[in-house]
Amino acid sequence: MYDWDEPYKIKAQILKALAHPSRLAIVDELCKGEKCVCELQQVVGSDMSTVSRHLSVMKAAGIVSDRRVGNQVFYRFRLPCVIDLLRCVEVVLQEDLKSRRGAAAEV
């Protein structure tokens, strides 16, 4: 029997894996191209184990993939369609900010 909510569970897992500021910063950086953990550590500003944990969550959700070269692990972003979603969110945030500024100016 088909589990009707399985696709929704998978989508929710992906969205949950994105739902952290550091992970969103990692996504932004990986959209520019493949990066090693040490490069992502500099972007996020956390220790190596924390960045690795974030990457592990995103890898389990299918958001990133990795490849080893010697001792280094390089990550790449697998879901370019998510960028459109994030841009949409950014547009809404900008509109809300403009609206709040306009309301504050009227007071």
Structural notes for this entry:
The chain has 107 residues and is α+β, with helices and mostly antiparallel strands. The chain has a domain of 73 residues: Winged helix-like DNA-binding domain superfamily/Winged helix DNA-binding domain (Arc Repressor Mutant, subunit A). Helices cover 65% and strands 13% of the residues. It has 5 helices and 3 strands. Strands 1-3-2 form a 3-stranded antiparallel sheet. A hairpin with a 2-residue loop joins β2 and β3. The longest helix has 26 residues. The model has no long low-confidence stretch (mean pLDDT 91).
β-strand amount = 5-15%
- Helix run count: 5
The best one-word shape is: flat
| CATH top level assignment of one domain | Mainly Alpha
Catalogue the unreliable spans.
none
Could you give the order of the helices and strands?
A: HHEHHEEH
Biggest sheet features: 3 strands, antiparallel
- Fraction in helix: 55-70%
Q: Roughly how many Å apart are the termini? A: 59 Å
Main sheet: strand order: 1-3-2
**CATH fold-type name of one domain:** Arc Repressor Mutant, subunit A
DSSP summary, beta strand count: 3
Radius of gyration: 17 Å
Task: Give the name of the CATH superfamily of one domain.
Answer: Winged helix-like DNA-binding domain superfamily/Winged helix DNA-binding domain
**What is the name of the CATH architecture of one domain?**
Orthogonal Bundle
The overall pLDDT, averaged over residues, is: 91
SS-based structural class?
Answer: alpha+beta
Q: What does this entry show, briefly?
A:
This protein has 107 residues and is α+β, with helices and mostly antiparallel strands.
